[in-house]
Design a protein that fits this description.
single chain, Immunoglobulin-like, 4-stranded antiparallel β-sheet, 2 domains, alpha+beta, 1 helix, 7 strands
Length: about 140
């Protein structure tokens, strides 16, 4: 590389930058498609499970969150804001659908959920299902 002129080095680096940009775009797309988005934190408390879902730039109406037994399902679309009257030199933010399924660490009550969406973070608190001990009645075998 020492035998290249400064201009040739700039052209080479610029070309590599374009390739790096293509690779990073593919990595970001793969993250959305493979279910690593959105990032999630889960906290287990004595009486509840708290889940924080980072949804920066995602509008509340573009997200659906479901609870199915002990699975938390998140799906939606990340849409960058429309910017009219701009001549973009680079576009790295794309509209990407996402779907992620998280298994909750304990059973939760499906009708006792508190959810708040604020500053790009969704905080959901699920009340834990109370542990239940069931007494099993033993019947006579009928003389056998």
């Amino acid at each position: 590389m020492d035998d290249l002129s400064s201009f040739e080095k700039i052209v080479l680096i610029h070309g590599l930058g374009g390739e790096v940009s293509k690779i990073m775009s593919k990595v970001v797309k793969d993250i959305y498609e493979q279910g690593h988005f959105p990032p999630v934190d889960i906290s287990l408390r004595s009486d509840s499970v708290v889940v924080w879902i980072e949804l920066a730039g995602v509008k509340k109406e573009n997200v659906k969150i479901y609870l199915y037994e002990d699975l938390l399902v998140m799906e939606g679309v990340v849409r960058p804001p429309k910017a009219e009257n701009y001549n973009f030199l680079r576009v790295e933010r794309h509209s990407n659908p996402f779907r992620r399924i998280i298994k909750l660490p304990v059973k939760v009550e499906p009708r006792n959920i508190d959810a708040i969406f604020e500053n790009g973070v969704c905080r959901i608190e699920f009340k834990r299902m109370p542990k239940e001990i069931v007494m099993i009645k033993l019947n006579d075998d009928g003389g056998q």
